[in-house]
Design goal:
Layout (H helix, E strand, L loop, with lengths): L10 E7 L2 H6 L3 E6 L5 H9 L3 H7 L3 E4 L2 E2 L12 E5 L6
Parallel strand pairs: 1-5
Antiparallel strand pairs: 1-2, 3-4, 3-5
Helix pairs in contact: 2-3
Length: 92
């Protein structure tokens, strides 16, 4: 589990990738530090800057914060939160 970072630099959150997002990111999960006050939108923007493949997947994804669907992408992330990145799934 990530630990909070210094308040002047930001907060640490766990990012978990699923399906196509996992393939594009090349990992199941990772700890990511975001600037204090950053929301899921800023996190996704930062992650998208890593590769075009990941950026393409992230544009289609839904996000969960500690298991709750994200509606406000600008709400500040809190230290220790988990953000799940969920691409659209087919089937049932």
């Amino acid at each position: 589990m990530p630990t909070p970072t210094d308040s002047s630099t930001g907060v640490s959150v766990t990012v978990r990738y699923f399906a196509a997002a996992r393939a594009a990111a090349g990992t199941d999960s990772e700890a990511v530090s975001v600037p204090r006050g950053a929301g899921v939108g800023a996190l996704a923007e930062d992650l998208a800057g890593r590769s075009e493949r990941l950026a393409a997947v992230l544009r289609r994804c839904s996000y969960l914060r500690d298991g709750v669907a994200v509606r406000d992408h600008e709400a500040p992330l809190q230290p220790g939160e988990t953000v799940d990145i969920l691409p659209p799934f087919a089937g049932g």
